[in-house]
Known about the structure:
With about 230 residues, the chain is α/β, with parallel strands linked by helices. It has seven helices and ten strands. α4 links the parallel β5 and β6. The C terminus is likely disordered.
Amino acid sequence: MRLVLANQWFPPESGWGGVAMWNDAMAHAYRELGHHVTVIASRVSPHIPAEQESDGIRVHRLLVRDAYRWRRLPGIGRYVREALQLAYARRVDRALRELHRAQPFDVVEFAEVNAEGFFYARHPLTPVVVSCHTPTFVLQRYYGPREMPFDTRIVGWGEKDMIRRAHALTAPSRDMAQTIANECRVPVESIAVIPNALSGEWRVASSDKSFAPRPMPHAIDYHIVEGKPHLR
């Protein structure tokens, strides 16, 4: 199959946060299973290549700019982040359609956070899978105004809309699956629980203070359930 992972965080350029590690792990797992994998991610500098290929995975990066001064404006500044996120979602939609015209793919997988698949999911060319890591509408419960000084209502609505329109949903735990089901009013049975994939070398006793894992956990210990890699 030809698979596309669409998420702005894909290492090493994005760093090694949780969603970035998931995308890296799953891209390589899918590739090892024999699938053709393409990634659509972001880049913050024009010096980072817009297209590159590594380990048989093709990566397209969309250039993004931080509107720091706009975000600092009184009043309207709190809505700038949402406007940028929706603008990026529109660019992802266009990039996917251009990619599909050039070389049709079979399925696209989004992370739910920031509603990157909002526009594509409304008029999809292929089945859409949404991986529910922790959406903004859940994250905002655990942050105070100083930690999250921007509006999240529009993006949160977009995340929920995208989740409801998905052809398939995943979550890393039963608790997150239940949270998504309650918030988005979808059957919890429709959400496949797939634990986060990590390299075997990350599984060490917490008492081993000397352990220093490699920064790129590609070797995944996975097995197949209903055609998708699961952590063993």
